[in-house]
Design a protein that fits this description.
365 residues, 39% helix, 9 strands, alpha/beta, 3-stranded parallel beta sheet, single chain, 6-stranded mixed beta sheet, binds pentane-1,5-diamine
Amino acid sequence: MKTKHTLMAALSALALVGCGKAPEPKAAEETPTKQAEATPALSMEAPKLSIFCWSEYIPQSVIDEFSQETGIAVSVENYASNEEMLAKLLAGGGSYDIIQPSEYVVGALIKEDLLRPIDHSKIPNLKNLDPRFVNMSFDPGNKFSVPFMAGSVGIVVNTEMVPEEIKSFSDVFQDKYAGKIVVLDDAREIVSWGLQSLGIPVNDVSDENLAKVKPVISKWLPLVKVYDSDSPKTALLNGDVTIGVVWGGEGAILLNADKKFKWVIPAEGTHLFVDSLAVPKTAKHPGNAQAFMDFILRPDISAKISEAFPYLNPNLAARALLTPEQLANAASFPTDEELAKMQTFEDIGQQASKVDEMVTSLKVQ
Ligand code: N2P
């Protein structure tokens, strides 16, 4: 669970990195030669891979299949927010070969020179990707990252309990739904909903705009019953809450589970996230990391990921393997018209700590 402390640690660590005090990469246990670092030779790497990824995103069956095919032993650690991941990565405690940052964090990590360039000749399945999800502004030419899944943030309504029409973020946060709302436990997301309800672009997080958003969010957050970024579907499924703002893949699982759930793309517009795989500079097994990137881009494997976690799959060859029902799930695959109204997040530098402080203070009111 993200705390103020972890985000502040992440931001101060990034600030330090900006001052040229990046944590030194730890020497590799298995292949400690400088030569191996300069030119990753697959044969010199131990058959190991350490993945640090979002919870509920990479099915264990996919990881097992990779291990069976390659003989590479995989360890997995999960996080529930980009900020939690950054804090752990920058603290240098874990030694991760693959991380799974969202678009704005890929941009920040590239800027701070914390990612290792990837070798496209080792990832031929890059060709399967939808051109709309490659060469994006946060990583031109995909020099450092490979899209894993994309998705939108939207509203799920239990229509048996909430018969009123819900169209927007401000429709969700009404007094009559007090104690019946689940939202993502993510300060950047929450502030973006406030900004969008005021018609302000999600990346315009100036002090002035944050001051405008504060009164909006301070009315909203006391109505929230559950903050959950790992599995916000659970509170909706078990009836603890009747309405929520959740990741698209979570919404898609709810729509598949019960017809009483409805997915709504907020009228104000919403966040289109692009979660990618990237290799930290400190990775000990960059060759294995690239083999894993290529594996998840295989159409059959990517389709299996969609089956378990139905996000917006950016892999066209995998999409061709999905059923018409999967492709018709409104929470997985927004229409082109809906997509056109969505915004991706950009790195907002030091303003991120103000966003986090604001939401943290309003949550504990
Ligand atoms: C997967 C979480 C999706 C991450 N459980 C949204 N950026």
